[in-house]
Amino acid sequence: MKSRQRRRLPALWVFCALFVVVFFSPAARAEPIRLWHAQRGDEQKALEEIVARFEGERVELLALPTDGFKSKISAAVQFGEGPDLFLDAHNRLGDYDGRKVIAPVGDALDGSAFAGPTLAAVSLRGEPYGVPITQKSVALYVNTDLVKEIPADFESIAELAKALPAGVVPLAYNSQSTYYHAGFVHAFGGLMLTPDDAFAFVGPAAERSLDFVLGLRAKKVVAEDTDVAVVTNLFRSGKAALAIDGPWLSTSLAETRALHYRVVPLPPIRAAGKPPQPYLGVEAVMLTPRGAARPEVRALARLLASPEATKIRLERARTLPARIDVPLPPEDAFLAAFAEQAKNTVAMPSSLAMDAVWEPADRAIRKVLRGDALPESALSEAKRRFDDVRRPAPPPASRTPGLVVFGALLLLGAFSLVRRAKDPEFRKDVKRSLPAYAYVTHAVIAVGVLVVLPLVIGALTSLLGGSIQNLREVGWHNYVGLHNFVQILTARGGSLFATGSFYVVLLVTVLWTVLNVFFHVTIGVALALLLSRPMLRLRALYRVLLIIPWAVPSYVTALAWKGMFHRQFGAVTGLVHALNETFGTSLEPISWFASFSTAFAANVATNVWLGFPFMMVVTIGALTAVPADVLEAAKVDGASPWQRLWLVTLPMIRPSLLPAVTMGAVWTFNMFNVVFLVSGGEPDGTTEILVTEAYRWAFTRNAQYGYAAAYAVLIFLLLFGRTRISDWLAERREAREKEASAAASVKAAGGAA
Fold it and tell me: Residues in domain ABC transmembrane type-1 (predicted)?
């Protein structure tokens, strides 16, 4: 026995030694390099090929969706996780710097090989925070089948309309977007943002740029109500002779073999004396603080921006490089055009203030193009909104009142528990219920972590103030007490009934909820009554078809309905044209998002389509519980079909409908997807509801999370109060019914006696 143990001991020591070598050696402990990106298609393939040539540590690539890229990066890095380096546009540097997501790149950048504008674009406070790899801007796409000669200037584009086929617009671009309009502002000598972070989209240059675009629209040169998707479809289908867009448009055109096009720099504006100067975007490698401290991560960053990597991107993805020491393929006219255009651009500001420019500037441009305001007044209002968002952080408040209130609540709770603990019956009930508590402990923990804890954190966040622009001065934990609530309820010192104030948005939200719930219940109950008829054929098929709107994800339905409401190319406009051709009418297409009434109606129509199936399903289930003999007895007693419905059926299904109506009201009150995706708050934010307004304060207005959380708390209090009032009314109604039933029983008993 002892000999066997002696033979096993060496084997045990060998196993321990192998375990130590494998799991505790430097090679085993070395972490892989994590690289996150949002590239797709040929760009992603080029990136994978470049990374495969890296001879350092193992690299983990993770592709994230473009829409949520910034939020995922910020959240992961701030919690000590996430990538070591990532690829993103340089204009987000200010946001990342404010959140302390990025660090200076150090020796990862060799500045001698890059163009001057690209280096300036990735620098903050005179220090590089990114390694440029590509540069992008918009240029002019030309359909060579429709346009034989490139227009000499923008004013000459109007002459194209005479030679174009019917239904083809001369020029398509996203005229309602600040990004695409910035080039015209720069051409007239203006800016969107000054170097000291002041709002510059105001004054004569900005007004002249808007007047110029209005002139193009008046001459039918520019397609109206366009966005990126509409511009892509117009140019791809041959319905636009020219288009202003970036290199990303070519990806959508790759499969359209019948389309012949070329790209040229933007022509000059005769009235300005020079061509538009669009924004230049630089895609850069950015290092997180953890990654910047690792030499191998900086080595990978150097590789990603190296001449070898640049050549791979040129061959595989045809992206314009940021390096000046790598020549472009001489036969590639596409890259040559964007390289020429890049010489006449303005690097997009990477300041945090730029994030606050987009929303007010977009609204001003749309108001002017719709004819709702003159350029001067619209731009002045945009500046006021920008300045409102960029307010300095409120001063810290004393924590003493809050601590006193919190302590008083704790004492009150402790006193209540002590008083109840003295009650013998209460102690017996607790002991008797201990086995039951064991069965629900896991549920209590789950609800506490997933529901109660987020509510508490949100409520505490509402007591903090400031935005990401104030992060370095006051931090995220700037306690301001009830300052956010006071600002919301006083409309931030402005008119209580101005557009965007809490009371106006609340009124719109209540109107939105009431109308939707009314139509949900009315249509749902009517269809349920129809489908419950025993003699109706194909009932199962009808039920499946009518449930489809509820089964399809809401954001898909919202985007589809938004497309149908497009003034020029939507299905509703197509129906109007069909009616005009069939009946000889002269109906005009409706600009659905140009006025509050039509934009609100579009939102309501979309949400009614989404919501009535739920009420229909609930009503069908409730109708199965209505006794047939009760309806038969009412019919024998001479009740008409309407009386049987109103006096028998509806009262019996009401207990099942009330919870559904309450849930439907809560869902509709917070229906973010429809309002955000269909109208987007247009026109001028008048169709915003409380939840979309809270979203904008959190994610489009310099990340004012405390202010947005205060909105969320108010929403919770409103819904909680509404629910409690409904329960109180239901209890009172039930009590009155019991009293009436008891009185009737007493009366009947007295009559019998």
Answer: 506-726
